[in-house]
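Hi all, a correction to my earlier message: I attached the wrong file for Bifunctional NAD(P)H-hydrate repair enzyme. Here's the right sequence:
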Amino acid sequence: MIPVLSRAQMRAFDARAIEVAHVPSIVLMENAGRGAAERILAIAGKRRVVIVCGSGNNGGDGFVVARHLLLRGGDPSVFMCGKPEKLTQDARINRDAWVGVGGTVDLLQKGPDLELLRIELDGAAVVVDAMFGTGLDRAISGLAAEVIELLNTVHVKRVALDIPSGLDCDTGVPLGPTFQADLTLTFAQPKLGLLTPRGVRHTGELEVIHIGVPSEVPADVGYSAQLLERADVARWLAPRTSDAHKYSAGHVAVLAGSPGKLGAALLVAHGTLRAGAGAATIVTWPEAVAALQSRVLEVMTASIDRDAVAASIDAALRSKRAVVIGPGFGLDEPARAALAHVLASWRGPLVLDADAITLLSHGDPRLAGVDFQRGSFPLAGPHILTPHAGELARLLETTSDKIESDRFGSATEAARRTGAVVLLKGAHSIIAAPDGRLVINVRGTPALATAGSGDVLAGIIGALSSVLEPFEAACAGAFLHAEGGVASAAGADRGLLASQIADGVPAVLRELF
Ligand SMILES: NC(=O)C1=CN([C@@H]2O[C@H](COP(=O)(O)OP(=O)(O)OC[C@H]3O[C@@H](n4cnc5c(N)ncnc54)[C@H](O)[C@@H]3O)[C@@H](O)[C@H]2O)[C@H](O)CC1
Ligand SMILES: [K+]
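and the right structure:
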């Protein structure tokens, strides 16, 4: 896993690299700028690269990029937006080094100067944003804001150094006018704000440039989250042994579906089986069972007697390894009674999704005996909640907008309050544990935003939770779901069916082992 840092942690990181690891800041800047220049040269070749530098260290990186491009046969052109007398020490050294190799700097000081920038951008291959990085602490205004608006309109590949100027480093919320990058080359470690759905819209593709800091530094200074990597999932999941039989691989009960919403139950079961469960049983309402019997081949069914909810669920859950509850299950009294009984009696892995989360958020004391809003820990056992922003907003009694503005904080808060692992869905799913661990899955494709996608995810996690700890099951589930979608979408950004996401999973598993 790759540590993801906040603004404050990034500052501590720099300080530690400089003071404890004795890597001078000017060396870090050189490594950052040279690494970025290599990447930009690969895109632009000999074509023009326009670099706009601020007066802080982000601008310093920009001067280093310019020098390396020029020395390797590129065609850099440098503008400075900011007062030369405000250049930081390292930025000044690198401005002078750029001038020393024959470079020039065009100062942008007033509106009409933008015309020169516009002319230079015409026909350029790349524009590099080196205006603000982790030092940004307020909305960009004045001439710098006009520069950003101009850069955002030109048809030139936009590359941001470290962070797109204008984006909040911690939340990914644009503070005002914000550079719209196609590619962000971030230095040393990914930053939190680059990985939220809002942040991603400004970040574009994300690449990390190593700047020569010893690898133990992030752990020394602490980090807020971790990026999930393929190797993590490969380490957790073991290949099946040759003597596996269907029950040793785990039998998952799926409490889902209701008349008119049978697809949800089928998709959960499909996801469960594709992710390696040995068997799946859909446990649902009698009329849903009747309708399912003509449709399912690989899945078993059991019905919940509305007059004997507890007894019929007990019978259906006997010898099951994990339970998934919620998709299409309903919000009526029998559904509530079923959920209350499962919460009170089932002590194995439990994945709560969709209607189960909505029922929980109504705060019915019969469900868990405790009120979430009072900050207690009502869910006992290895539980995983898989809300989207709207469901989490209901659970935390807030708005989706507030959740989206602080996804990391919201997921962490929900995990702390419920005592469950919380997977917050979205363009980048995040997984929070009650102990504060936070993991981000950046894999996936826009094609995953399709009806039933969440049902498949719940099913995949259900299968994994019968063989892994809940936190690992949720992380690995997010990975398999995303990669299954990528495999089946085959490059398309839409048109994917939820069942195809599940169908992509076995090939992803094969590649992992
Ligand atoms: N990660 C590393 O190890 C390295 C990072 N480097 C680069 O340094 C920047 C951070 O540089 P810093 O000088 O701290 O700040 P900025 O350049 O981002 O900003 C300059 C300055 O601007 C002021 N400011 C903040 N907000 C505004 C605003 N809205 N309008 C006007 N002025 C504003 C504030 O005072 C800032 O200090 C990091 O991102 C990397 O790119 C180094 O290369 C070393 C290695
Ligand atoms: K920048």
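Sorry for the mix-up. The chain has 21 helices and 18 strands.
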